[in-house]
Design goal:
This protein has 492 residues and is an alpha+beta fold. It contains 13 helices and 15 strands.
Length: 492
């Protein structure tokens, strides 16, 4: 993220020109703050976060970095006809899924009904919706997964096709398998209860489209306050890249171009044992934190152990859905909250965790201010693009909390799109891969293979899981001592 080659600069300028943003420099319009926080009901206008996501899409319409792909297996209490009906109900009730994007003469992007309808690829056996390659006749597991992989890695033309692709297969052993691929513009993690719940129950949840059913209405901080917080913390001039430890070499103006690039990525998984999760819940209570805040603080400690950077910035995604911005008419409602962590190596682990959690809560005071608005203000003040290489998150598994009729079974697996959005990403996912199974936590490590190699990624996972195992019994140890021990390979 600290390099801007001539070839990369030329690519980014071509993207800017294609998006109607020509010029040597990136104007404020590229991260423009929206004029209103709320989408206007019935107009098809985007919500605040959707506008930011749309601008990202306009920069590179061939990107697949925001494709979300799932393979869902429904047990033998489900039939193909019933799942077709449920899918059509889901699309019909959620305007975000059945629309294309049109940009008017005023430059405002809006959703308009696509008119796309589902169809039989093989009557009675395979049904599909959206833009998909021709059905190849394969219904075996390997064939289904191969099709899912192709769809996950195929870009959406959002001005010509809806942001959803579905293929339903009737299985010979009973039940139905679904490939579901959706562009992030149409969904976020808070969308799944309404959308997947419609598939599992065959009914649209009554509360899903009701005003006020989304996240509680939090006090909205002013952009100016968020800018001052940024300049004091994550946007200060002394912030270094955590992976290299370097100060940014690019000027402030150039820095706004350098991160805008997709790179090939890879993913690995590491389970968190149930007993370790239970022990961490006790630690969270002791340090005055929610479990989610503690996991983010542990990610920050993991970065310290991995890189030696006791002072660094993490990017943390968070839900920013407002009451009334329901998933039937507002899709992506996420936000990004940069957080700066500073650890004292001589403090004990308990104090370090409290410090980390305090940094999380201090940053979250500004979570209602959209990231794009903060970036606009920061750039206007002469600041550089955030000096961050690592994202950390805690999220629900797609099936967590999804209603399922008694006696039915549903399982889910994610399909990786092959893109690394950041050099390194830590994500703790909470839930189960199958309805009715015991809830568990696992760590996902995503990484850009051109920046982080496989050995480094595995070491990152080992350090984080090592922290998780050791924290409950070592709260009185000096954090620098624990980090030094963890960085020794034989200790891991």
């Amino acid at each position: 993220m600290n390099a801007l080659t001539d070839a990369r600069l030329a690519l980014l300028r071509r993207r800017m020109a294609a998006a109607g943003i020509a010029g040597e420099h990136v104007p404020a319009r590229t991260v423009a703050a929206p004029t209103a926080n709320r989408a206007q009901p019935g107009t098809g206008e985007f919500g605040i976060a959707e506008r930011r996501m749309w601008r990202i899409y306009e920069f590179d319409q061939d990107s697949v970095s925001h494709n979300i792909a799932l393979v869902l297996d429904f047990g033998d209490t489900y039939t193909l006809d019933a799942l077709v009906a449920s899918t059509e109900l889901m699309i019909g009730r959620a305007a975000v899924l059945g629309s294309i994007v049109t940009v008017g003469a005023d430059g405002v992007a809006r959703r308009t009904p696509s008119g796309v309808r589902g169809r039989w690829a093989d009557r009675g056996r395979v049904w599909e919706y959206g833009t998909l390659p021709a059905y190849d006749g394969r219904t075996d597991r390997d064939g289904v997964l191969a099709a899912a992989d192709v769809l996950a890695r195929s870009p959406f033309a959002l001005t010509k096709e809806p942001p959803l692709r579905v293929r339903l297969y009737s299985r010979a052993d009973g039940g139905v398998t679904m490939i579901l691929v959706v562009h992030h513009l149409a969904v976020d993690d808070t969308s799944w209860p309404a959308l997947l719940g419609t598939l599992t129950t065959g009914a649209w949840p009554e509360q899903a489209g009701a005003d006020g059913q989304s996240a509680a209405d939090r006090p909205v901080a002013a952009v100016e306050d968020a800018l001052r917080h940024a300049q004091r913390t994550w946007a200060a001039e002394d912030v270094r890249f955590p992976l290299s430890g370097d100060l940014p070499a690019l000027g402030a103006e150039e820095s706004w171009l350098s991160p805008m690039d997709d790179r090939p990525g890879a993913k690995l998984y590491a389970p968190v044992a149930p007993e370790h999760r239970t022990a961490l819940d006790e630690v969270a209570r002791e340090v005055g934190a929610t479990s989610n805040a503690l996991y983010i603080a542990i990610c920050a400690l993991g970065v310290y152990a991995l890189t030696g950077a006791a002072d660094h910035v993490l990017l943390v995604p968070t839900d920013n859905r407002r009451p009334g911005d329901t998933p039937d008419r507002v899709g992506y409602s996420g936000n990004i909250v940069p957080m700066r962590f500073t650890f004292d190596p001589t403090s004990n682990l308990r104090e370090a965790l409290r410090s980390g959690v305090a940094a999380v809560y201090a940053a979250m005071e500004y979570s209602t201010v959209d990231y794009g608005a903060v970036l606009t203000a920061l750039r206007g003040a002469g600041g550089r693009f955030p000096v961050a290489e690592i994202m950390a998150s805690v999220r629900n598994a797609p099936l967590r909390g999804i209603p399922v009729p008694e006696g039915a079974s549903v399982s889910c697996r994610s399909v990786f799109n092959g893109v690394g959005n950041y050099p390194l990403t830590f994500a703790f996912e909470i839930g189960a891969f199958e309805i009715g199974a015991d809830e568990r936590v696992h760590l996902e490590v995503d990484y850009q293979t051109g920046i982080v190699d496989e050995e480094f990624a595995h070491r990152a996972a080992a350090l984080l899981t090592g922290l998780i195992e050791r924290i409950p019994d070592r709260l009185d140890i000096e954090v620098g001592q624990l980090v030094s021990a963890l960085r020794e390979p034989e200790v891991i």
